[in-house]
Amino acid sequence: MTKTLAFSPDQHAASRTAPAISHARFAIGAVVRHRLFEFRGVVFDVDPTFANSQEWYDAIPEDIRPSKDQPFYHLLAENADSNYVAYVSQQNLEPDESDEPIDHPAIAGLFDGYEDGRYSLRREHRH
């Protein structure tokens, strides 16, 4: 038995125009800083588009809420007071030019070393 799918004209037009594909600007191990807030971190994972909860997304003030259709980065982050894990949109990150390592207790479990402003992923975590 063949299944037929029916599309409205609007749905059919939408299927012909794919959304723009955004490429990740930062690789795992890159040290970055937030454009708006005073923290920096090392990238340990990348989602091609938003992959967190709607509740998390809605908690961001609407006037600075980023588009979901861009890479989002998982960071081992630090600020002047603490270290933590952050989830940040690509539009809110820039390269960190300080050449200073990140002070986060989880770094040793994921990365081997720090050289030329970036961390090397431990062999057991490479694909």
From TrEMBL:
Where is the secretion signal located? Answer: none
Task: Show the stretches that span the lipid bilayer.
Answer: none
Repeat: present as a keyword of the record?
A: no
Listed A to Z, the keywords are: Stress response
InterPro entries linked to this entry = Clp_protease_adapter_ClpF (IPR053189), Hemimethylated_DNA-bd_dom (IPR011722), Hemimethylated_DNA-bd_sf (IPR036623)
Pinpoint the Hemimethylated DNA-binding domain residues: 23-122
Q: Lyase: is it a keyword of this entry?
A: no
Task: Write down the SUPFAM superfamilies for this protein, in alphabetical order.
Answer: YccV-like
Q: Domain of life of the organism in this record?
A: Bacteria
Protein name as catalogued = Heat shock protein HspQ
What is the source species?
A: Sphingomonas arantia
Lineage at the top is: Bacteria, Pseudomonadati, Pseudomonadota, Alphaproteobacteria, Sphingomonadales
